[in-house]
Amino acid sequence: DTCIVWFRRDLRLHDNPAWNAAVKSGCKIIPLFIHSPSEEGKWRAGAASNWWLHHALQDLSNQLACYGLTLTLRSSDTAIAALTALTQEIPVKAIYWNRCYEEQSIKRDTLIKETLSNDGISVRSFNGNLLFDPLEITNKSGSPYKVFTPFWKSCLTLVIPRPETITFQQAETSPHYCLKSDELDSFSLLPKIPWDSEMKEFWEPTRSGAKKLLKQAIAKSTHYQDLRDIPSDDGTSRLSPYLHFGQISPAEFHHEVLTRCTVKDTAQNGILRQLFWREFSAHLLYHFPHTHDQPLRDEYQNFPWNFDTDLLEKWQRGQTGYPIVDAGMRQLWKTGWMHNRVRMVASSFLVKHLLQPWQEGAHWFWVTLVDADLANNTQGWQWIGGCGADASPYFRVFNPILQSKKFDPTAAYIKKWIPELSEVPAKLIHAPWEMEPLELAAAGVKLGTDYPKPIIGHQEGRKQALDAYSKFKSSL
Ligand code: FAD
């Protein structure tokens, strides 16, 4: 008998429940990936995600080749068309996959399940992308959580799944069929103009890259709380894209950190807690699917944003005149990733100081992040915009100058991403417009020429945000 393992966002052989089930079934296995971007609608993957996907698929294909298996690649308008075609080419007994929990994926998978089951094919799906199925966690009244801490505490009362990796022999799994497969290059996931040189330096988008970062994260886990907010330090794991594409499972991440770190409480309240923010975001998007582009708190539908493409573009290009914001936006552009602390400062600057809709920021992050994840991105932006679950209130405006002084005191982060400010003394760099002309000249900087003047004053931006908020509150 032959079965299909349909890889989606679980591009690994380790701790992969769908893969494990297929191996245990004793069937010959056809590993399959379907590229159907038109099916992703509004949330079609951006260029940075596609870059990552290309490499992750190449790596998975190499791993499978070690067992004599070929990853079959198919490009199609819809996944169902590709699957139906495949099941007509060869007799297939069963199909296995790990669930994705976005509304669009659920709709697609439900239809596929119905269609293939009607054709007599056994369809089995698993949870391999989260620690818990979003339906598993409810509060005492059976409703979804909207506040993080009780959600997290409730998760901790459950048995956290342990990773399971099974060994298998080539002869057991290798099918007799030689199926037509598209070339990976035909998916056109890599850039046509080579803008990815820094991405290549910054990332090793493979399973072995994930393992290296996991090892480092374990070694650093006792210092996580002290270092996690310092963007110049490698204090966080940088595992987010690997988790998104499933090159490492959350169960493996959790288990490895917990069993190998030296101080368990520190890990549990530090890096592992973040993994539950990931769970919480998925939980919220699953239960409130409209939040992918609408606020969770309904009243925010009518927030008086001041949409302005010029301001938005300056923010996107790292030309706001606020070094910490610009450094973050440039790190994002060059590497496809931004440190979490800077994500908070830069996103707050857009929605508060510049009064731009959070959806515009979320969209830019979506196309530029290698870890772009609908649940995490949506909840991150709504948290900042004050309109999400457990959100920081709108009137709490991050001060980009104080944040910069506190979290980048040596300016190592700013200077890395804004070389034109490299000669500016660290204590002055956070607000270059306050520098004396002589100080600027000594640092070789002409404001407005080498580096922009601030596009809005901090007090003015803060006041504008608070005025918009109080006007909005009184209109409710
Ligand atoms: P670590 O600190 O090492 O944390 C370990 C893992 O926990 C991460 O890999 C990630 O999977 C998860 N995690 C950490 N922080 C959060 C968080 N606040 N919310 C949810 N999960 C978290 N994260 C994404 O993965 N994709 C996104 O598209 C995304 N968009 C964001 C947008 C905004 C405006 C903000 C404020 C945050 C966003 N985040 C997003 C969350 C967070 O910034 C990243 O997960 C984190 O920076 C990844 O770095 P790391 O792997 O080193 O994290």
From TrEMBL:
Reactions catalysed according to its record: cyclobutadipyrimidine (in DNA) = 2 pyrimidine residues (in DNA)
EC numbers, comma separated: 4.1.99.3
Highest taxon in the source lineage: Bacteria
Annotated FAD binding sites: Y224, T236, S237, R238, L239, S240, D371, A372, D373
Enzyme class: lyase
Gene Ontology MF term list: deoxyribodipyrimidine photo-lyase activity; DNA binding; FAD binding
Cofactor(s) recorded in Swiss-Prot or TrEMBL: FAD; (6R)-5,10-methylene-5,6,7,8-tetrahydrofolate
Pfam short name (any one): FAD_binding_7
Residue intervals of the Photolyase/cryptochrome alpha/beta domain: 1-131
Keywords per UniProt: Chromophore, FAD, Flavoprotein
GO terms of biological process kind: photoreactive repair; response to light stimulus
Cofactor note: Binds 1 FAD per subunit.
Site (Electron transfer via tryptophanyl radical): W305, W358, W381
UniProt-listed InterPro entries: Crypto/Photolyase_FAD-like_sf, Crypto/Photolyase_N_sf, Cryptochr/Photolyase_FAD-bd, Cryptochrome/DNA_photolyase_1, DNA_photolyase_1_CS_C, DNA_photolyase_N, Rossmann-like_a/b/a_fold
Protein family according to the UniProt entry: Belongs to the DNA photolyase family.
Name listed for the protein in its UniProt record: Deoxyribodipyrimidine photo-lyase
